[in-house]
């Protein structure tokens, strides 16, 4: 009984310690792409709350893709919206997934699956507190873009902030 109680206390304190290490993370979510086919009209959306307008934030994409993805790059269009649905910013962006010369996948991977983390904004500020949404769609002009398995967004405050 005492061993079980001690084990539970150790695990609980470890969980609290790990949670406190990530207190600067606003959101870190992945969205699976159905059947690895990202449809042209499909938006990947992420909701998050901003409580601190004095801080700057870093935003990055996390892309999981297969080596049979047919291009070396991925064009995306993002939409940053406030709680009223007003688009605060929107831009077409290019992510490089394969080395142009060698054709080797960029990122961490094993076998035919790779994960690529791409910093997008290093100094993003939010003018007001509240709920925001970050929406992304593929912009490759293909009705069904194969090889993208999941897409994610991570927003965090820098450690020294």
Word description of this protein:
The chain is mainly beta. The chain has one domain: Jelly Rolls (Sandwich), CATH 2.60.120. The protein has one helix at residues 2-21, and strands spanning 25-32, 37-39, 43-50, 57-66, 73-81, 87-96, 108-110, 113-124, 130-138, 144-146, 148-156. The chain has a five-stranded antiparallel sheet with strand order 1-11-4-8-7, with no helix packed on it. The protein has a four-stranded antiparallel sheet with strand order 3-9-5-6, with no helix packed on it. It has a two-stranded antiparallel sheet with strand order 2-10. It is globular and about 45 Å long. The protein starts with a helix and ends in a 5-residue tail after the last strand.
Helix/strand order: HEEEEEEEEEEE
DSSP helix count? 1
How many domain regions? 1
Second CATH tier, the architecture: Sandwich
Q: What's the average pLDDT? A: 87
Major beta sheet, specifics? 5 strands, antiparallel
Distance between the termini: 44 Å
Tally the beta strands: 11
> Low-confidence spans: pLDDT under 50, at least 5 residues?
1-20
Radius of gyration: 19 Å
Strand content: over 45%
What is the general shape? globular
Q: Helix content range of the residues, please? A: 10-25%
Pairing-aware structural class of the strands and helices? mainly beta
Give the strand line-up of the largest sheet: 1-11-4-8-7
CATH class: Mainly Beta
Enter the CATH topology name. Jelly Rolls
């Amino acid at each position: 009984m005492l061993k079980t109680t001690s084990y539970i206390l150790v695990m609980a304190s470890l969980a609290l310690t790990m949670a406190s290490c990530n207190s600067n993370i606003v959101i870190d979510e992945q969205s699976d792409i159905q059947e690895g086919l990202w449809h042209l009209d499909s938006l990947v959306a992420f909701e998050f709350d901003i409580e601190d307008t004095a801080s700057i934030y870093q935003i990055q994409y996390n892309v999981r893709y297969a080596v049979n993805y047919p291009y070396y790059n991925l064009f995306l269009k993002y939409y940053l919206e406030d709680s009223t649905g007003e688009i605060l910013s929107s831009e077409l962006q290019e992510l490089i997934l394969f080395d142009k010369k060698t054709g080797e996948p960029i990122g961490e991977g094993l076998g035919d699956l790779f994960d690529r983390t791409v910093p997008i904004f290093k100094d993003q500020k939010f003018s007001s507190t509240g709920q925001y949404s970050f929406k992304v769609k593929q912009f490759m002009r293909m009705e069904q873009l194969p090889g993208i398995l999941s897409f994610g967004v991570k927003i965090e405050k820098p450690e020294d902030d």
